[in-house]
User: Which sequence fits this backbone?
């Protein structure tokens, strides 16, 4: 495939499908599990451990990201992180991903390249490869990602929490929501929160560690801590209580709360996008890096300090 | 999860994310390879043969389908077929799929259910299951599918064609393009072509048979016979010549050609969407059900009867 170049300011339409795909492919280094990489009708992966853990996520411009708030490379990091985190939440490790990109014809080709570079970088940080994709035009910018991974132990489901377990959290939580609140008001600081929103730092090693330590149930917090706790409660048929005093609300969130009139804890309890992990463990047994934030009992409610929570609890997709 | 019902005329927004997802999930029967099905952070699949073949495709309303031309269930069949066919073209068999659906808020929930039912039916026809998905709102209707499968033998790539091989075709070819031409002019007949466009019938068994028979290269025809022949020629670094007299143009295409002034063979040579298979074989060695339509030689050109073809050769995605 010679002659695959285009002007740096070309749109995806001007660049053309095949030249752009060729340039994108060059950004994706292939891991040792890849027997056939991008460019054929399908990729072929070596699977050593008898199973595959697979998840898919769709991100839509204007709904999950805004190009004027987050640079292309960071959107790539976020899109990869959202998917890698789903494998983390099973106690597994991701190895291979595919990207479907539906892009407006006037999208700068450089945007697609920067996005792919950020995406590939985030994948490489956990040793995973982009093994295939599809590129097509659409009125909206839509990013569809599928991730494949594996678990060394049995996958940790949402349904295994037992009365008597503790609820524990690993990773930054509420920072991205704080950053989003800041951006939504037209500000750019506290910078640490804006950066947390733009480029989440999920605790990628924590899922496998939790599985090893005997976590009974686990989920990643993409839509809000209490919303995800509700998923755990429903799937496990238990009640979950979260303790306010378990959280030391970080100073930048206190500052945003003061500036916006919001309860700073509402970012922690209702915010998503950090991709922290929420898990239940039999007591004692919470591994390093995890903080106990609540308890599991018989019942079906999700409460905060024993009472219903009346703040925002998470993100709705419709 | 009780109470997951909504009025039959609800939009996806009115139905709500979780009730709609629950109803969609109920449509997806799980195969024996599924250790954990839809509803957790990820699905878990048993992989018996040490590898996975994976491909992804994005379909966009207005670009790949029109809701006023094709019923929801048929769009489901088409979306599944396009992906299952990619595994077929590797000589493999699909076992598991994920669907990402970005839908306008005013899309009828029943449309999503009918789509999913058609999708699941097409998958079931080859013994594959829908194991996961994602549902979100967007301005456009975008369907992103990822398919996983396996090959009993080595996968058949695009790059293995050798000078001296024959080029062979399996499956209906040009019928869907004829149907699309008919629909594009506001007609509904010949009905057999319109139906071929609405619900393709890819030769799902032919890929594995071709692999068994020693096919050297293979591709599925989604974008046009000559366009896909060009992919084979480029990846294999060979020349390919297609013989006009190898095709018996079916009567309905002759009729559409006469009515529209088009060369009826142009549907066969330029049309996509039937998901026929194109493969190269060492002579002799073409299995039953395959028709020899050309030859492979040294060089790099794709020709028809030895000369450049000046008709439309396929679909461009931008």
Assistant:
């Amino acid at each position: 495939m010679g002659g695959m170049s285009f002007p740096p300011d070309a749109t995806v339409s001007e660049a053309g499908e095949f030249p752009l795909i060729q340039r994108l492919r060059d950004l994706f280094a292939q891991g040792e599990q890849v027997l056939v990489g991008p460019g054929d009708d399908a990729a072929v992966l070596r699977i050593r451990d008898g199973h595959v853990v697979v998840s898919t996520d769709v991100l839509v411009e204007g709904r999950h990201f805004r190009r004027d708030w987050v640079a292309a490379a960071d959107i790539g990091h976020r899109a990869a992180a959202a998917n890698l985190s789903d494998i983390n939440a099973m106690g597994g490790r991701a190895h291979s991903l595919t990207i479907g990109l539906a892009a407006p014809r006037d999208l700068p080709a450089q945007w697609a390249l920067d996005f792919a570079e950020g995406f590939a970088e985030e994948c490489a940080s956990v040793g995973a490869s982009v093994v295939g994709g599809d590129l097509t035009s659409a009125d909206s910018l839509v990013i569809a990602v599928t991730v494949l991974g594996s678990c060394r132990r049995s996958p940790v489901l949402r349904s295994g929490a037992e009365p008597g377990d503790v609820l524990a959290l690993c990773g930054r939580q509420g920072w991205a929501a704080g950053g989003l609140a800041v951006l939504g008001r037209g500000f750019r600081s506290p910078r640490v929160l804006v950066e947390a929103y733009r480029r989440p730092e999920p605790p990628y090693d924590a899922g496998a560690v939790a599985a090893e330590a005997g976590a009974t149930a686990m989920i990643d917090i993409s839509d809000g801590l209490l919303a995800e706790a509700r998923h755990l409660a429903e799937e496990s048929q238990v009640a979950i209580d979260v303790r306010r005093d378990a959280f030391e609300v970080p100073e930048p969130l206190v500052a945003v709360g003061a500036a916006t009139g919001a309860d700073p804890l509402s970012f922690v309890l209702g915010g998503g996008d950090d991709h922290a992990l929420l898990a239940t463990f039999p007591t004692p047994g919470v591994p390093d890096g995890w903080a106990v934030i609540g308890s599991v009992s018989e019942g079906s409610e999700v409460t905060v300090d024993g009472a219903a929570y009346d703040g925002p609890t998470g993100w709705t997709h419709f």
Notes: Chain A is about 30% helix and 25% strand. Chain A touches chain B through 72 residues (CB under 8 Å). The mean pLDDT of chain A is 94. The radius of gyration of chain A is 20 Å.
